[in-house]
Specification:
The protein is mainly β and 336 residues long. Helix content is 0%, strand content 55%. The strands form 7 sheets. The protein has a 4-stranded antiparallel β-sheet with strand order 1-28-27-26, with no helix packed on it. A hairpin with a 2-residue loop joins β16 and β17. The chain is globular and about 55 Å long. The mean pLDDT is 96.
């Protein structure tokens, strides 16, 4: 199978590096955030993607992360000013309805769970916070201090209340709730430098991570008493690295995204390149999996690529953003 990647559009308007982007659940809107302290919302007009809204009053410093709620009516943004702003667009216009405060330093990432009842946030202060959402009320219900360094990203499991976080301490932590208290039930070790990004597959049984060590790793969850002989103590699953993808990126891997539609993995990083990987089912065993590179875009942007995301409804549409202040849309076509 051959895979082609064609540039569809370049979206310009941000005045400083674009750190992060997020598709709305319907796939019709794209939110982007930047060092210029703004969020831009992009949508299609005819065949052209245009900036529909600029949100410039929520933060006083760089906005590092944006994420839509599962219903698509809310947007959360995390900033170096130490806060997370919640935006509501049920009335048609985006309105700031809440500010989550408490982190001591820059907030690097935020994530909604699949039902929209919880938000996780993480920070350079080494902590992960979990917030309960009730109507427009946001209450911190847990502060988790298992990382020893800056926490780069938090991400909820696609269909259960399991949270993952990755850090400058080279590890990934997995959390779940037990009797109203959250705890870390597994720490994934294997990367030799900062873990910048994580992404679950559609089932949530596998996770891909991207690191400063220039590799991607695929992890799989094994239940207690599994048939594969992986030791999982107690009642909690055990995560094990089942594949390492190395030799593809020449510098840090800043972001990874596992498409829930096509099963393809996209990665990007400090080498200004995007790579796309596909699972090779012929060489997969019960405890190891093989992934092959199917596309390599070497100069996707002119500077570091900070984020890459698959459209949730159109598996051929990929978005990327960069230190070069632009966002790009790509058409990914696989030909048997």
């Amino acid at each position: 199978m051959s895979t082609t990647v064609k540039e569809l559009a370049v979206l310009e308007g941000h005045e400083e590096r674009v750190w992060n982007l997020a598709w709305s659940p319907s796939g019709s809107l794209l939110a982007t955030c930047s060092g210029d302290k703004t969020i831009r919302i992009w949508g299609k007009e005819g065949e052209k993607w245009v900036c529909k809204t600029i949100l410039d009053e929520g933060h006083t410093r760089t906005i590092r992360s944006v994420i839509w709620s599962p219903c698509g009516n809310m947007l959360a943004s995390a900033s170096f000013d130490g806060t997370v702003t919640i935006w509501n667009r049920s009335s048609g216009e985006f309105e700031s309805i809440a500010t989550l405060e408490g982190h001591e330093n820059e907030v690097k990432s935020c994530s909604w769970n699949s039902s929209g009842s919880l938000i996780a946030t993480c920070s350079r202060d080494k902590s992960v916070w979990i917030w309960e959402v009730e109507d427009e009320d946001y209450e911190c219900v847990s502060v988790l201090n298992r990382h020893t360094q800056d926490v780069k990203k938090v991400l909820w499991h696609p269909n259960s209340e399991v949270l993952a976080s990755c850090s400058y301490d080279d590890t990934i932590n997995m959390y779940k709730e037990d009797e109203d208290d959250w705890y870390c039930y597994d720490t994934l070790r294997g990367h030799s430098s900062t873990v910048w990004s994580i992404s679950f597959d559609k089932t949530g049984n596998r996770l891909v991570s991207g690191s400063d060590d220039k590799t991607l790793k695929i992890w799989r969850s094994f239940l207690p008493d599994n048939q594969q002989g992986i030791v999982a103590t107690g009642k909690d699953p055990k995560w094990k690295c089942i594949s390492t993808l190395s030799g593809y990126h020449t510098r840090s891997v800043y972001d990874v995204d596992w498409s829930h539609e096509s099963g393809l993995i996209a990665s990007c990083g400090a080498d200004d390149a995007m790579k796309i990987f596909k699972e090779d089912n012929e060489n997969t065993t019960e405890t190891s999996e093989n992934f092959v590179i199917v596309a390599n875009v070497t100069k996707a942007h002119s500077q570091d690529i900070n984020c890459v995301k698959w459209n949730p409804k159109d598996s051929s549409l990929l978005a990327s953003c960069s230190d070069d202040c632009t966002i790009k849309l790509w058409k990914v076509t696989s030909i048997p």
